[in-house]
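Changelog-linked ticket: 2-phosphoglycolic acid example.
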Amino acid sequence: MRVPFIAGNWKMFKTIASAKVFADEFKDLKANKEIKVAICAPYTQLAALVEAFKDTEIGVGAQNVHYEAEGAFTGEISLPMLKEIGVDYCIIGHSERREYFNETDEAVNKKVKMLLEDGSITPILCVGESLEVREAGEEASFVEEQIEKDFAGISADKAGNVVIAYEPVWAIGTGKTATPDQADSMCKTIREKIKALYDESVSESIIIQYGGSVKPANSKEILTMGDIDGALVGGASLKSEDFKGIINF
Ligand code: PGA
């Protein structure tokens, strides 16, 4: 049985002060089912959130990490720095990082490998096709290729520790959600690709989230699909009531 996992992605929103207000409203979360929950916030807010959620089951995640442990990389944050704060998750390869910060599959692969080798922070690896790719009917092969490149050199005993987030770029922040069938079908394709790269025990246990305009009004129809094990939620994770509504779908 895969335990569903719903993570918020705050992107570049909130301040330490407003993150604390959210945490106060959110930390009494009473989930109506067995579920894992986390908030992935900007670096400056992480320590405050770890502190605010310390007596709860709510996890905290970063949104990026550099693949070197230290060095002359102005503006970057390393894994030892995140470990010191005590975060549980780190988003890797979000489409906004791939698009605006030129993050390649090679860099994404290095970051995922580093996190898995260390083992203390779970990577949430984002994949997904653009509208152009979907309109050309090439979405499955595009995402399969991302999976292949992003998992290169990762062994079967570690691969299952990755959380995969399927986020079609055309559905992110656009209000345009993939239909439950479109989302489930790609999550199934990803699971089959993982089976081909590894084996059935990895593919059946790996958590695959859907992301892209998930909100309280559509979370149930998406999250009850067979191959979708949770969600990565942007805009609707910024308000505690909306995020609770998604979690208690
Ligand atoms: P959205 O973002 O829910 O605002 O569409 C999802 C994401 O980018 O992770």
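Closing comment: Example verified and attached. Residues 5-247 form a domain with the TIM Barrel fold (CATH 3.20.20.70). The pocket of 2-phosphoglycolic acid is lined by residues 9, 167, 172-173, 211-214, 232-236 (CB under 6 Å).
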